[in-house]
């Protein structure tokens, strides 16, 4: 196999077979295929695309490039959940404990936030003492004894994806549906679960800006998962405005706790129940999504979901009694009165970054208590002198930039507007 021949074939719109793709990924990881040749191949994929068979082969080769999590010692059907990322997305903090309280084991590997979207690991690490780096023995022990463990991804989980993504990031080859789908799914396959529920976001605060684009990505990932023998469901959910009202690591943990206590924003509760219902169906804990949703509602309202969250946090060293220890400075943002017509949600996420809640590179430090709480969303009326949002920050934050971004994010008018639907589509 000569790499130049594979590049040429793909450039002309031809297809590679599974063995050629596997050898290509292996050679790239071992260093026998140089960056410049892989960059040429990636650009050919951007222009010519890949067949479903090629995409599945690429995903499985990337997954097999490192460790595959062995969950065979975990009792029951293991179901994972993945979100394509958004602003204020704290669903995993509520969903994991709730689904595990329903008897479905949750063995989840998550990542850190990068850019304007937050990461579940950063949110959990904002809880004083919480450990996200677990040995495999600790991870499996927690899943088998309390039903849930959530840890950071190891460097040996799909290392080909990390190497490829670094190259895509500097060669303008990020925006390719097969490459995006294979990047996400390679890590999910390596995590070893039996089924996956995908939460694919659509809107101004998501990577996919349109519902059609999100649907195409979801269908691509569902196809990959089914090809690998996984049970799959995808939910297309809205990200044209933040999810909930809190944006920022510790602020989102507090809001997640409110939802687990039977309070909190309705949209966070609704999306949690819908995603969890499909996790129960795939995990054989419910016959229908409606039955699954009823089971989870009872666990939320009875307080059993919150009890499981507390058990989970204690098992990984966290101390919820200290969640309010950090004292931040704050500032209100006011706008002209009117009705919120639309929101540029990405600007809200960028404002949180300016305050210290996000990072531009994976090595940047973050301020766990920083962020903002919005008070108004699409369709809400803002009165004269009423705050649209409140910023939380410490010394060194670019508060002026954050305030300007929030002002730019809100599009005000006088016409009544209905809020967008939370769920756009289900692909099951």
TrEMBL record:
Superkingdom, taxonomy of origin: Bacteria
GO term, biological process aspect, one: pyrimidine nucleobase metabolic process
InterPro entries reported in the protein's UniProt record: Glycosyl_Trfase_fam3 (IPR000312), Glycosyl_Trfase_fam3_N_dom (IPR017459), Glycosyl_Trfase_fam3_N_dom_sf (IPR036320), Nuc_phospho_transferase (IPR035902), PYNP-like_C_sf (IPR036566), PYNP_C (IPR013102), Pyrmidine_PPas_bac/euk (IPR018090), Pyrmidine_PPase_CS (IPR017872)
UniProt entry keywords in alphabetical sequence: Glycosyltransferase, Transferase
Pfam families found in the cross-reference section: Glycos_trans_3N, Glycos_transf_3, PYNP_C
Catalytic activity: thymidine + phosphate = 2-deoxy-alpha-D-ribose 1-phosphate + thymine; 2'-deoxyuridine + phosphate = 2-deoxy-alpha-D-ribose 1-phosphate + uracil; uridine + phosphate = alpha-D-ribose 1-phosphate + uracil
Top EC group: transferase
Entry keyword Transferase: yes
Span of domain Pyrimidine nucleoside phosphorylase C-terminal: 339-413
EC number: 2.4.2.2
GO molecular function: 1,4-alpha-oligoglucan phosphorylase activity; thymidine phosphorylase activity
GO cellular component assignments: cytosol
Family annotation (SUPFAM superfamilies): Nucleoside phosphorylase/phosphoribosyltransferase catalytic domain, Nucleoside phosphorylase/phosphoribosyltransferase N-terminal domain, Pyrimidine nucleoside phosphorylase C-terminal domain
Family to which the UniProt record says this protein belongs: Belongs to the thymidine/pyrimidine-nucleoside phosphorylase family.
Function per UniProt: Catalyzes phosphorolysis of the pyrimidine nucleosides uridine, thymidine and 2'-deoxyuridine with the formation of the corresponding pyrimidine base and ribose-1-phosphate.
Name of the featured protein: Pyrimidine-nucleoside phosphorylase
Organism phylogeny: Bacteria, Bacillati, Bacillota, Clostridia, Eubacteriales
């Amino acid at each position: 196999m000569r790499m130049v021949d594979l590049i040429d074939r793909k450039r002309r719109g031809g297809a590679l077979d599974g063995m050629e793709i596997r050898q290509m990924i292996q050679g790239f990881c071992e260093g026998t295929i140089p960056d410049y040749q892989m960059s040429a191949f990636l650009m050919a994929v951007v222009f010519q695309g890949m067949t479903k068979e090629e995409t599945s082969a690429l995903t499985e080769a990337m997954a097999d490039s490192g460790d595959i999590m062995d969950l065979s010692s975990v009792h029951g059907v293991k179901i994972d959940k993945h979100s394509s990322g958004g602003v204020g997305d704290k669903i995993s903090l509520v969903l994991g404990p709730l689904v595990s309280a329903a008897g479905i084991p949750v063995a989840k590997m998550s990542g850190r936030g990068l850019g304007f979207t937050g990461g579940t690991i950063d949110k959990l690490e904002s809880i004083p003492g919480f450990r996200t780096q677990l040995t495999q023995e600790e991870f499996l022990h927690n899943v088998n004894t309390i039903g849930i463990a959530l840890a950071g991804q190891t460097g040996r989980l799909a290392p080909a994806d990390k190497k490829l993504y670094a190259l895509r990031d500097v060669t303008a080859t990020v925006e390719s549906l097969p490459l995006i789908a294979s990047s996400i799914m390679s890590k999910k396959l390596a995590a070893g679960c039996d089924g996956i529920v995908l939460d694919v976001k659509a809107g101004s605060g998501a990577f996919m800006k349109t519902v059609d684009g999100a649907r195409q990505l979801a269908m691509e990932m569902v196809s990959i998962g089914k090809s690998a023998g996984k049970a799959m469901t995808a939910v297309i959910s809205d990200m044209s405005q933040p999810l909930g009202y809190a944006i920022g690591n510790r602020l989102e943990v507090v809001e997640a706790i409110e939802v687990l206590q039977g309070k909190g924003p309705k949209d966070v509760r609704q999306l949690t129940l819908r995603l969890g219902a499909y996790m129960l169906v795939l995990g054989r804990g419910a016959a229908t999504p409606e039955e699954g949703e009823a089971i989870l509602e009872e666990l939320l309202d009875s307080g059993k979901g919150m009890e499981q969250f507390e058990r989970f946090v204690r098992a990984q060293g966290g101390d919820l009694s200290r969640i309010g220890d950090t004292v931040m400075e704050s500032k209100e943002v006011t706008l002209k009165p009117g009705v919120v017509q639309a929101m540029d949600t990405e600007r809200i996420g960028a404002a949180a970054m300016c305050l210290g809640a996000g990072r531009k590179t994976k090595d940047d430090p973050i301020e766990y208590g920083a962020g903002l709480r919005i008070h108004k969303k699409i369709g809400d009326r803002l009165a004269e002198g009423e705050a649209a949002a409140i910023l939380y920050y410490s010394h060194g934050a670019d508060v002026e930039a954050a305030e300007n971004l929030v002002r730019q994010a809100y599009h005000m008018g006088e016409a009544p507007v209905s809020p967008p639907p939370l769920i756009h589509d289900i692909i099951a």
